[in-house]
Amino acid sequence: MGLGRWRVGRGTNLALLVVILLAVATGALAFAIGGGWAWWVVAAHGAAGLAIVLLAPWKTAISARGIRRRRSGSVASVALAMLVLIAVTSGVAHAVGWWTGTLAMQVHVGAALGSIPLVAWHVVARPVRPRKTDLSRRSLLRGAALAGGSLATLGGVEAFVRVAGLPGAERRFTGSYERGSFDPDRMPVTQWLDDEIPRVDAGLWRLEVRSLAATRTWTFDELLGFGDEIRGVLDCTGGWFASQEWSGVRVDRLLEPDPDARSFVAVSVTGYARRLPIVEASRVLLATRVGGLPLSAGHGYPLRLVAPGRRGFWWVKWVERIEASSTPWWWQSPFPLT
Ligand SMILES: Nc1nc2c(c(=O)[nH]1)N[C@H]1C(S)=C(S)[C@@H](COP(=O)(O)O)O[C@H]1N2
Ligand SMILES: [Mo]
What we know:
Blueprint: H1 2-32, H2 38-68, H3 74-96, H4 102-125, H5 137-163, E1 177-178, E2 206-210, E3 215-219, H6 220-224, E4 228-236, E5 240-250, H7 251-254, E6 263-268, E7 273-277, E8 285-290, E9 293-294, E10 304-306, E11 319-325
Helix pairs in contact: 1-2, 2-3, 2-5, 3-4
């Protein structure tokens, strides 16, 4: 009897570790990519989160035994359980639409990030050594049952959201909710972390464009002379999106072509910066206007990047420099650090 229980315990713990790592990885990936594969990644993220819920009853039984034995580290274990609980409930609440808004996503991501060091500690302090039987037919079947059960639960939740007419039915494939489309004043003003809205005097401001061979500067009035237009969806990882008519100048009109250029970086007056592949210079806009009017200070006045298909954190605001370089675009932190 003891042996049977022990095996179930091993299986549950290993499965839980796998699905937690999967949830974190798919969550990060969903933030990193904006289009294309994002739908699949977001679905996998939902299934991984629900797998945690499905494993919870077994894990609760295991934990109850552990708590009775009063081992050291119980406080950290309870903290880990709380963080996972917060991450999962806030994730589900956001997905169905009971709790939307940037704070919900901050709590969700904050709890998930906070759990990572505790997961690492837990793996070290309560090691489960891999055994041959972990790859037995029985455990593979159990893993397949968990995967199938999670996808079925995901389908069930999505069906419930639609039948019950919950706000979650309206969300985009990234999981974001519509806020202020074609009405920039209603669109939220968001910063990635700790940037503050600068007051820029467009008369003194200049855009510096550094091509590989030459540098030139542009005044605001000169840039207003361009009329490139893009309808683009700004999709913030804070969980909202908005479609707007942006106008300004495509980056490839300002950068001198050079076969050695592999990327360009857009730098804000605040120091915030993102590097994009040079091939996107023809798709990315430096916008001076949204909805036909100049940008507000919060939305990036006088000039901001518009990068359709990329999540909001790529849409650098208050741009003062564009610089081509031979550095590959991925040579940067995957997410901004400021
Ligand atoms: N300079 C700078 N640009 C930035 C950010 C920032 O913190 N600093 N945040 C980004 C993020 S996370 C988003 S979602 C969009 C939000 O644009 P909005 O405030 O115009 O809605 O700006 C992006 N551009
Ligand atoms: Mo964002």
